[in-house]
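Two proteins follow. First one:
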Amino acid sequence: QHMSYLRTRATLDELYGLEISPGGIDRIMQRGGKRALEQVKPIQTQVQQSVVVHCDETRARVDGQNWWQWVFCTAQVVFHVIRFDRSVDVIKEVMAGHEVEVWVSDVYSAQIKAPARERQLCLAHQLRNLQAVIDLEPTAFWPKAMQALFRQTIHVHNHRDSLSPPEFQAQILRIERICTWLLERPLQQKDARRLRKRYVKHRDCLFVCLHRTDVSPTNNVSERALRPSVIHRKVIGCFRSGWGAQAYGALASVIATSALKGI
């Protein structure tokens, strides 16, 4: 519930008449954190053995410094780690030499270097990036057309069960054909050219979700997994120690994985 030790102490006293010192709360947290840390290794192992991994990161404040909270989501588990690092080294540490089939993320350089055979760029991120270009030049055709194409991709993925196999394949061919046409168009706007360069470079990472039923077109699952931690950061401010950050990551992993499995 994103409560500090002092608020926890006051709440227990006011609601239940239970008097407990901040030191007592800290010892309880240390016991809970230690037990959670013992449980995260199997969760990490399941991430390493997964077929599809969604990954994202957000800032975390630890002892007055900028750290980073990473989340790795699969169909079975959610794994949080907090590190003083935003490089690909964190991903390498978590994956420990394992390679997955598909990595779903934004285009942050560390994510692009993740060990995976294929990648699916988060189309929700691309919609936001394209909207920023549209806001600068509302009459521009290209960013609106790319937005419409990515929205159609998400729609086709979400409603693939309502389409017959020939209809679904026709939709894929149409999307691929329009994408190729748009990426070949001459552009004047600098920001639009920057995005086109990105899509040309990562052309094979745009529509993996249409060719695999187990791959989502967005990374919303990771963003939802990080949202409680963003709220925690805004309410609490920061962790006082590296140990507290690691314990929080372990507790978040155990709680989110348990909820996902219905345990």
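Second one, unrelated to the first:
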Amino acid sequence: RLRDLVIGRRRGLALVALVALSTGVGGCSSDSDDARSPTTERGGGGAVPTVSAVRSLSGRPADIAYAEGVLWVSEDEGGTVQRLDATTGEPIGSPIPATSAPASIAAAGTSAILADALGVVTRVDGPTGTVQVSSEQPGASYVDLVADSGRLWLVDIAAGSVSGIDETGEVVWTTRVPGGAVRAARAAELLWVTGLEDTVSALDPATGAVVVGPSPVGAGPIGMAGAGGALWVANGDDGTVSRLDPRTGLPKGAAARVGQAPIAVAGDGSVLWVLNQDSHTLTRLDAASGDRLGADVALPIRPRNFVVTPAGVWVVGVDAPGLVLVSRP
């Protein structure tokens, strides 16, 4: 959902976070073979993942999070948050009006935390539906949020910075990241950040000090995840996923070729799932080798994000707005 915004990196234009919320990620991926490395395919003869459930949603579903048997889905047209059963996808209560421009959502116990593209951080209590603004930074454009053990890290794409938030909600540090800041993820006790062009950097999560990078990856890096002893980076502009050492940022083999406009990755045991927005597909890779595991899974929506749960992989998206469950093989 950030990729149309980030395209401005090539034109030197000002970054406006609300553009990302209205357009979604995708639309300009490159399919040139010289930008990709070959990927071995194996495991095509066994069971394959299947779309086992589709749930219609209203508005423009934007992001999804999971905790304690509950899915949280944010919607960036009306600014609402919906709770759903993580096994069936059935709604739990009515949508909750939360914030005007939700860009990222994270689950924390029975609550959800939303980062707003207008610089607002909001906490929503699931059982009561209570909405509380926990911080507000005028002029900031928060487009990603990482939550871990009471601490938060916020990505401000306009400023190219990341801020660390303590348990009391206070900003304890803010770091301008070399190469800009698009998404963040924890791996190997570091906070990794994708840049605007073709690099990633790692910060000390306690102090914000830049400890690794910028390290080169593919074009248009967006989502990241740790899996199989590596940091995996989705390169939205060249259809690849980079595999890096999560402590040094050095490559661990060649990048894996996936679908068009990969925007998010997630580990699931020995499997790495890759969400391809322009292809409307999920790709499975061996998390240790990067080999492709069978054919891609076709999705009946234009995906915007996904989450791995015990019931399977839930994907949220638009055209038509909905929630899709992909069962494991």
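SUMMARY FIELD: The first strand starts at residue 41 and ends at 42. Residues 53 and 325 are 5 Å apart (CA to CA).
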